[in-house]
Specification:
The complex is a heterodimer of chains A (115) and B (114). By secondary structure, chain A is an all-beta fold. Chain A has one domain: Immunoglobulins (Immunoglobulin-like, Sandwich), CATH 2.60.40. In chain A, 0% of the residues lie in helices and 51% in strands. In chain A, strands 2, 5, 6, 10, 11 and 12 form a six-stranded mixed β-sheet that branches. Chain A has a four-stranded antiparallel β-sheet with strand order 3-9-8-7, with no helix packed on it. In chain A, strands 1-4 form a two-stranded antiparallel ribbon. In chain A, strand 7 and strand 8 form a beta hairpin. Chain A is globular. Chain B has one domain: Immunoglobulin-like, CATH 2.60.40.10. Chain B contains no helices and eleven strands. Chain B is globular, with a radius of gyration of 13 Å. Classes of the chains: A mainly beta (115), B mainly beta (114). The interface between A and B is medium-sized, with 24 and 26 residues.
Amino acid sequence: AQTVTQSQPEMSVQEAETVTLSCTYDTSESNYYLFWYKQPPSRQMILVIRQEAYKQQNATENRFSVNFQKAAKSFSLKISDSQLGDTAMYFCAFMGRVGGNQFYFGTGTSLTVIP
Amino acid sequence: DAGITQSPRHKVTETGTPVTLRCHQTENHRYMYWYRQDPGHGLRLIHYSYGVKDTDKGEVSDGYSVSRSKTEDFLLTLESATSSQTSVYFCAISDWGGGPDTQYFGPGTRLTVL
């Protein structure tokens, strides 16, 4: 089975500052996808950003960007100009092509944006 | 937002009773999944379906069964609920497409087993 590790259980950042959340994974597959999901207090899981492993270019979505290092099996999320609405739990997820599009999730990082 | 609903949204039940959770989608997506979310564990896959009547086990399938008789509905059944099954349950859907097969999640069901 694939494993996804988020080593930062909790983080905080000042409003308008930049923060980076870490994620590492372990797989023997060469073709896979990586995702970051956000879970605010409402509990709804919201897709933040996704990255295809075969693409060298790092994905970006407005204030959110990733640093994808395939050889190191690292997939960090950078949030720029942090806003109060960014306060949430963030989950890193891995999806390979073996076994029905199964997702493997990390244990999450709780991010608090401080006004 | 993807059209995914879960029912019930909250349920309290007693140990030993059967419980069925329902996931309904309006997106006609092929894949459907059931996860449970517990503190310190993130989301863990219970079962998934890759078509009508086609299902397979996930990481934590013991004590759970599923059924999918229609594309739009995926049922999760706890035959005899135990306190260890107290959790938040999420349904998700995905489909084969031209790009990454993103999973879209329902709003979750909070289940408490007393």
